[in-house]
Design brief:
mainly alpha; three-stranded antiparallel β-sheet; 3 strands; elongated; binds iron/sulfur cluster
């Protein structure tokens, strides 16, 4: 399940990630860690699932390891309980803040960054753009100086 608290410590959103697009690979929902849920988030998710709050809390949450609040439970394989087989989040429109702010407000270790399809695509696009710019400048130089 999506990173642990140590990966969630940026004070300001990362401007370099302003063009980030999630490609719904589901990797961050499988990473070892916890997803804290606040009281209002529990209310919103329970309402979205059309469940009584108590029933939702019992079925989908447990006490955090540090006993400060609640976290979502995992599936048997360690993925978040709400990650579906198609890699989509079952509660996407009401997902907790921790999920909504990923990866903008996270310090994600490199090894994990490489597993995020959205970040990998973004890196490739930036590289391609820089390459095209460089090729354009070389072409411009020849056009200006040779012909
Ligand atoms: S709540 Fe949704 S977005 Fe958050 S970890 Fe679970 S499946 Fe992923
Ligand atoms: S790892 Fe990245 S691309 Fe994959 S679901 Fe998470 S944010 Fe989206």
């Amino acid at each position: 399940m999506i990173g642990n608290d140590n990966h969630y410590c940026k004070k300001k959103p990362d401007k370099n990630l302003s063009g980030f697009q999630c490609l719904c690979c589901g990797e961050c929902c499988r990473w070892p860690g916890i997803v804290r849920v606040s009281e209002p988030e529990c209310d919103a998710i329970a309402a979205y699932l059309e469940m009584e709050l108590q029933a939702f809390l019992q079925k989908y949450t447990k006490i955090a390891p540090d006993r400060r609040g609640l976290i979502l439970i995992d599936q048997k394989d360690g993925a978040c309980v709400f990650l579906q087989k198609n890699n989509r989040c079952h509660i996407y429109s009401v997902r907790p803040r921790k999920c909504r702010t990923f990866p903008y407000e996270w310090d994600v270790p490199l090894e994990m960054q490489k597993r995020c399809a959205g970040r990998c695509k973004m890196r490739e696009d930036i590289k391609k753009e820089a390459q095209e710019k460089a090729e354009g400048s070389v072409q411009g130089f020849f056009n200006d100086n040779i012909f």
